[in-house]
Amino acid sequence: MAFEGLTEKLNATFKKLRGKGRLTENDVREAMREVRLALLEADVGYKVVKEFVSKVTERAVGTDVLDSLTPAQQVIKIVNEELTSLMGGGTAKLSMANNGPTVVMMVGLQGAGKTTTTAKLAGLMRKQYTKRPLLAACDVYRPAAIEQLKVVGGQLDLPVFEQGQGDPVEIAQNALRHAKDHGSDMVFLDTAGRLHVDETLMDELKRMKAAVHPNEILLVVDAMTGQDAVNAASAFDEALGIDGVILTKLDGDARGGAALSIRASTGKPIKFVGTGEKLDMIEPFHPDRMASRILGMGDMLSFIEKAQQTYDEKQAAKLQEKMRKNRLSLQDYYEQLQQLRGMGDLSQLAGMMPGGMGKQLQGASIDEKALAHTEAIILSMTPLERENPQILNASRKRRIAAGCGLEVVDVNRLLKQFDAIQQLTKQFSRGRIPQMGGRGPMSGFGRKKRFK
Questions:
Q1: 207, 156 Cβ separation under 8 angstroms
Q2: Residue 330 and residue 314 in contact, taking contact as beta carbons nearer than 8 Å
């Protein structure tokens, strides 16, 4: 999980401060030395760390903090505010064209995940902002780049404009004309990358910029490369003039230094972050929410937004009424599994939970194989059987097992899990909070282990 090491070290430092009734200037300066080391170990640039610690120290040794009733909380508040400021303060949005399609030019080095990120961002624009995006295959050099864009575009049901191995600048111009003719209001140009910044690459990107006048030039960088990502951002901005950055693989970077350094080093905002391999795992970058996560306070706003994307209000009301009457069915169980799957990786949700709640989910994941078996068994049942599992006798179980290619023992295991859930529902309806356990695709929730 991103910033895991930094979060632990900062929490340990603040715990020491909370243990003191009153703070002296030496207490604050000692804490800031530990913060400085934690940031350097997280691969944040030295100059950025030096300026950050200086600002926090200057504010934290003021009389308003040292003489307050809760000085430790005041220091944490200052660190939170300065972290937010370091990462840009507010959320940076895409610039949209007033007339005609919005052109977004995606640039970056090879291996950063640019092609996949281009499709992810276009998918996000369509899903959340009801845009009609067109993907344009302008990387004519990397083997299979065009095919890759067509594949990910197809998975997201997005149109792809391609003209083979032609002139990328001409392809970009033709894509823009195609978008105007076919009603697309956004064009995403997937441009070529290199293993390093070179003159040939930059010349081509400059020609494309001059030809299509993009509303946004977004640089895609791999968060796991740390300070190399910052260096790449500086080089591309100097040569091309970028408008923002998309950080990929943030979920795989336990240090997170790139996210904390890019804005301060380049002046360019991080606009989006990739949080996983799945094509819906991209989200706008919110500096204030990320600062909250780093300090172990969680990010409930992002959690709520993610839940709302898969939340069906009518279905939830219906489920609530059934739970109140203890009439939960296997069909309800199936629908809840679908919504849980739509929420994404549980280990990512852990970062959004404050304090101990998040730690309980760290490392957790849904066992996709067990989930698929559960779904197959339920779908092999008749509607009557799903609503009334008590009628499932031996012959019905054999038919269900044969229908989904599993064994009767698998059917029995599911029924046992469902019975346990019904018992939990009874306890909830009586106002009791039960302990959760057992086995299955949803077992172990709230425990620090994999879902089995």
A1: no
A2: no
User: Please, what are the domains in the chain?
Assistant: 4-86 (1.20.120.140), 102-297 (3.40.50.300), 310-429 (1.10.260.30)
Q: Give, for all 452 residues of the chain, the pLDDT tens digit.
A: 567 778 888 888 888 887 776 778 888 889 899 989 988 888 888 888 999 999 998 888 876 666 665 777 788 888 888 988 988 888 888 989 988 899 999 999 988 899 999 999 999 999 888 999 999 999 998 878 999 999 999 999 999 999 988 899 999 999 999 999 999 999 999 999 888 888 888 999 999 999 999 999 999 998 888 778 888 888 899 989 999 999 888 776 656 677 788 888 888 899 999 888 888 889 898 888 888 878 766 544 555 455 555 555 555 556 566 655 566 788 887 877 776 666 555 555 545 544 544 454 444 455 667 778 888 999 999 989 998 888 999 999 999 999 999 999 999 999 988 888 777 666 655 554 444 444 444 444 333 333 33
Indicate whether this model's pTM tops 0.85. no
